[in-house]
Amino acid sequence: MTKERLIGSGDCYEVAGRIIISADWKVPIFLCHGTVTGQGKVEGVKFGHAWLELKGIVIDFSNKKREIMPKEKYYKIGKIENVKRYNKIEALRMFSKYKHFGGWEDEKDKKKKV
User: Fold this and answer.
1) Coil, helix or strand at residue 86
2) Helix axes 12-22, 88-98, angle to 10 degrees
3) What's the CA angle centered on 95, arms 68 and 15, to 5 degrees?
4) Average of pLDDT values for 81-89?
5) What is the CA radius of gyration of the chain?
6) What is the DSSP string of 7-64?
7) Which residues pair with 81 in a beta bridge?
8) CA-CA distance, 1 to 45, in Å (whole number)?
9) Coil, strand, or helix at residue 69?
10) CA 19 → CA 49, 62, 92, distances in Å?
11) With contact defined as beta carbons under 8 Å apart, do 51 and 25 qualify?
């Protein structure tokens, strides 16, 4: 496998999106979209990913995982870069605009190139 951007079949965008819109959060929570560098069978391959951040903690329930850990540790493990954070209102606007859970940054880039 070459080290290029991977388009996967995971559910991270939908899972993180549904969690942020599902509750009336009493503390600031952010939907995050970023680029992760793969490990194991996909080592070195970069791909889009989504998770939630809440007070320095990452919540990642994608692909039936239940990961909750400090943000610094999560970012180091995933070699995360190019992060875009959305609060609940911003996320709702993006869902409405693009009619899907993400990643939206690629959509913006496509429109700029046209």
Assistant:
1) strand
2) 130
3) 30
4) 96
5) 14
6) -----HHHHHHHHHHHS--SS-EEEEEEEEE--GGGTT-EEEEEEEEETTEEEE-GGG
7) 35
8) 8
9) strand
10) 15, 11, 12
11) no
Q: What is the pTM of this model?
A: 0.85
Q: Which residue has the tokens 């889009």?
A: 48
Cβ contacts of residue 1 below 8 Å, gap of 6+? 41, 42, 45
The position carrying tokens 């996320």 is: 91
pLDDT on residue 25: 81
Domain ranges for the chain: 12-107
**51 pLDDT above the threshold of 80:** yes
- Which of 33, 40, 39 minimizes the C-alpha distance to 12? 33
Instruction: For the chain, report the end-to-end CA distance as a whole number of angstroms.
Output: 30
> What six digits make up the tokens of 57?
């903690």
Over residues 52-64, the mean pLDDT reads 96
pLDDT interval class at 107 (50, 70, 90)? low
Maximum Cα–Cα distance across the chain: 44
